[in-house]
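QA checklist item 7 of 12: single-chain prediction sanity check.
[x] sequence parsed
[x] length recorded as 153
[x] structure emitted
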Amino acid sequence: MHGASLLYNLMVAEAAGKEENVSKYEQRLSEWSSAVEERLNDLSAWNPEPLWGLVSSVRKTGASMATRLFVDTWKRMVCTSSGPRSVVSDQHAHDLIRERERRLKRGWARLSSPRALEIWGGESSAGQLDYRWTYAHRILSDIFEGLEKDRVA
């Protein structure tokens, strides 16, 4: 899904005519594509249904059908025989991203609102989600360090 965020930012950068951002997102999409290609077999075999069940078990409304359809469609596009690099130039991928933004942001969709595009700061949710791994890693390291000191003492 990180590739969808990067493609969105590339599309916005192109629409805004910000060449430095276009280059940045083309590079980041290339890096993302390489990383996905290394794990394409795992990604292709991944079944998102258990994820949707987990989301439904912790959230009353679960994931919306629109979200599920977006994720499933994106996964299918990335896992096609042409692979993740093809989504960068695929019109269907661009349409999927554009429609998702329009549905979520309505009148403030940057790809269709000149005012929203004008105030774009150059990045919108383009970071890789790490689910607070930095914090969890530090806490776990502290726990293991404490346990090791206790064991040695």
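[x] summary fact logged: The mean pLDDT is 87.
[ ] second reviewer sign-off
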